[in-house]
Design goal:
Elements: H1 3-20, H2 24-35, H3 39-46, H4 50-58, H5 67-84, H6 90-102, H7 108-113, H8 124-138, H9 141-151, H10 156-167, H11 170-179
Helix pairs in contact: 2-4, 3-4, 5-6, 8-10, 8-11, 9-10
InterPro entries: Cro/C1-type_HTH, Lambda_DNA-bd_dom_sf
GO molecular function: DNA binding
Organism: Streptomyces jumonjinensis
C-alpha cells in the first residue's frame, strides 16, 4: 500500500469513528467474534456483499450507504450484548439474526422494540447508544474533545460527560451511566 492509499484508509477510518463510534473493521470483528459468525455470514445478515463488507472493514470505503444496513448493524450490536450478558442464548441469537436479516429498517419503533428488556424498558446500552448517536450527529469526536477540554477547568463533570459519550467506547459510557444512576 502506498502513502496515498494509507492516507485515504486512515481518513476513512477516522470518518467511520466519527459516524459509527469506531472504525467498522473493529466493530465488525467484534460482531463476528461475539456472535460466532464468519465474514460471509455477517455480510449476508447485514444485506451487504462480501466485497463491500471487506472494503468497509479495511477502510477502502468509509460509509455504509444504506440506512437499513446501519439499523441492522445496531440491532446486531444489541444482540451481541444480550448474548454476552446471557439474556439471549446462542439458539435464540440465530433466530434473531434471521429476523434482523429480513428487517427493512426505517422504523424507529422496530428498532426500539428489538432493544428492550423483558419489562419493556429500553436497555442501558440502548439509552447510552442513543446519547452517543445524538452527540455524534452534532459534532465530530475531535470537536467534542476540544469542547470538553475548554469546559474542563470550570465544568469538569460536563467535560467528562462529553468525553465519555461523545468520543469514548460504548462500554465506558455504559459504566459511566450506571455509576450515575442511584
Amino acid at each position: 500500500m502506498d502513502a496515498a492509499q494509507q492516507e485515504t484508509t486512515a481518513r476513512a477510518r477516522e470518518l467511520q469513528r466519527s459516524w459509527y463510534g469506531e472504525p467498522l473493521g473493529a466493530l465488525f470483528r467484534r460482531l463476528i467474534d461475539d456472535l460466532g459468525l464468519n465474514q460471509a455470514r455477517l455480510a449476508a445478515v447485514l444485506g451487504l456483499s462480501a466485497p463491500m463488507l471487506s472494503q468497509l472493514m479495511s477502510g477502502q470505503r468509509a460509509k455504509i450507504g444504506n440506512p437499513a444496513v446501519v439499523q441492522r448493524v445496531q440491532a446486531l450490536q444489541e444482540l451481541a450484548s444480550q448474548v454476552a450478558d446471557g439474556s439471549v442464548s446462542a439458539a435464540e441469537a440465530t433466530d434473531r439474526m434471521a429476523e434482523i436479516k429480513k428487517s427493512q429498517g426505517g422504523s424507529v419503533l422496530t428498532a426500539t422494540s428489538q432493544t428492550t428488556n423483558s419489562s419493556g424498558a429500553p436497555t442501558v446500552r440502548r439509552v447510552v447508544r442513543e446519547i452517543q448517536s445524538l452527540l455524534r450527529s452534532v459534532a465530530a469526536a475531535g470537536d467534542i474533545i476540544d469542547a470538553a477540554d475548554s469546559l474542563a477547568p470550570t465544568h469538569p463533570e460536563l467535560a467528562e460527560f462529553l468525553r465519555v459519550y461523545g468520543a469514548g467506547r460504548t462500554a465506558e459510557a455504559v459504566a459511566h451511566y450506571e455509576s450515575h444512576q442511584s
